[in-house]
Amino acid sequence: MLIFPKTGQDLKNISIQMPMGLMCIAAPLVQEGYRVTILDQRIEEYFFRKVKQCLSNEHVCAGITTMTGSQILYALQIAKFIRNISHIPIVWGGNHPTLMADQTIRNENVDIVVRGEGEITFLELINNLYLKKPINGINGISWRDGETIYHNPERDFCDLDGLHPVPYDLIDAEKYILSQVPGKRRSLEVYTSRGCPSNCIFCYNKSFNKSRYRKKNINAVIEEIEYLAKRYNLDSIVINDDNFFADTERIHYFCKCLIAKKVIQGWGCLGVRIDCLEKINFGLLEESGCKQLYIGIESGSEKILSYIKKNITINRIKDIINRFSGLKIIAHYNFMVGYPIEDRDDLFHTVELARYIMKTDPKAYLSSFHLITPYPGTEFYEMVQRYGFVPPRALDKWANIRWETENAAWIPPKMRKIDLNLTLLTYFIDRKGLDRVEHNILLKIFFKILMILAKWHWRYRKFKFCPEFRLLNRLMNYKIASEAEKDILNRL
Ligand code: B12
Predict the structure, then answer these.
(1) CA–CA separation, 317 vs 325, rounded Å?
(2) Distance from the CA of 7 to the CA of which of 63, 183, 373, 397 falls in 20 to 30 A?
(3) Ligand 1 midpoint to CA 272 (Å)
(4) Which CATH architecture has domain 166-488?
(5) Which atom of ligand 1 lies nearest, measured to the CA of 91?
(6) What pLDDT, in 10s, does the model give residues 92-146?
(7) Distance from the CA of 67 to the center of ligand 1, in angstroms?
(8) Domain 2-159 classified CATH 3.40.50.280?
(9) Minimal CA–CA distance to 320: which of 369, 360, 359?
(10) Is any ligand 1 atom within 6 A of the Cβ of residue 433?
């Protein structure tokens, strides 16, 4: 049984994407003849009842995935629940357990941690558990024997072309089909590569993927997209790679294949590095059906860009912004604030760059400004400890890292209020939020009022005092906390 816990940010029909990691680790198990159930807490109405109904003596183990953050809260609730009704081992995997293996394995609701890519390691583990063979020789796991913790040696990365196809039939794909690409209604996600060769200080890639970029054969990717489009009647596809644009020639070949074979009407992509776009043929990109790209800019200050090792300058960023302005492709630009060395000038440079985008390319979207967060396994995580950041000492403490500027020790005190207000009000400075609530009249009116207020603050650079957005933030936090509470009460 493989479980995807809620994340705390799940909006039905808006943000719930397929549990790709679990489907990947299920692939070799299915080939080997195991029966695999994937349960997704985000979409199962009576989730805990379902877990109870499904669990039987035949189960080899329960596998739970989690990212860092509030998903851990739900993952822990689920693990405790399973612990109470069954004796099967509980295996944790995914980003957080990998990056914080020692803390994770020390939690009483975790029996084994699978570190890194799970396809091969998990198969070996299941085989050994099923045959009641010892697990001490399996690379890539951390485990416990009584009070003693073992971290077995690391496992090499997988050869992506040697992996079994993703078993989409294991999930009810219809429940994950979303309108994620502008002008298109039905899309699902694929991944075509893993890792990223860059060294940005805030990204998990350096430790999770050892900065190694590995790619699937692009013809196999095209075939997978063709299959998905036919099987699920898709008009679009979303690429969820760490850095899809890392290899320019591969992108051009991909675009040419999409055009020649008329594979899919539209596509979009997350995690785009802006420097990787510099050599791209934008005409070809547009012709191939590219509709939307999520691009990390991070800051409008040269000083900050060099601090985070982004390896780009503002002029080069502006060149790319200008190129998108003449195209139909919608660029979503991501920004962060709250860097330890950021002062008011740096912040205003970021606001200026955001304004430049709104002026130059009015169809572009700006992400709400995110607070830079010391995720485990990043260089930033190590750096901010010098500023008094004390990392959570146990797995459950990581569940509550909805850091606000007040408790983000690395932000200079005089910047905290402004940073927090900017993260809140930038959600409403363009139509990104409004587009999400299109079908709900009341929410739409509510959003429009907030947009008017946000634009006023934005226009007059009044970022210090934004009581309306602080209140909204409190309400959201309360909602998240009470939903988690409700989940505990409604377990059965
Ligand atoms: C899609 C996506 C989402 C989706 C849903 C995730 C999903 N369906 O899996 C949504 C929108 C919900 C999301 C939300 C967030 N995300 Co996100 N997301 C991604 C993204 C782009 C793709 C995930 C994916 O499909 N990967 C491909 C699969 C194959 O890889 P995988 O999940 O790692 O799985 C492999 C292994 O980890 C392992 N494995 C995974 N699970 C398990 C379970 C078991 C039992 C075992 C044995 C093995 C195992 O085996 C798998 C196959 O090898 C990744 C970046 C990336 N390219 O991975 C970021 C990423 C996972 N997200 C990240 C972050 C930070 C977030 C947010 C916090 C962002 C935010 N500011 O709000 C929120 C988290 C919300 C919360 N409160 O917890 C970080 C995670 C860092 C971390 N330390 O956890 C990533 C890595 C991006 C980054 N570069 O920083 N995200």
Answers:
(1) 13
(2) 183
(3) 16
(4) Alpha-Beta Horseshoe (3.80)
(5) 45
(6) 999 999 999 999 999 999 999 999 999 999 999 999 999 999 999 999 999 999 8
(7) 6
(8) yes
(9) 360
(10) no
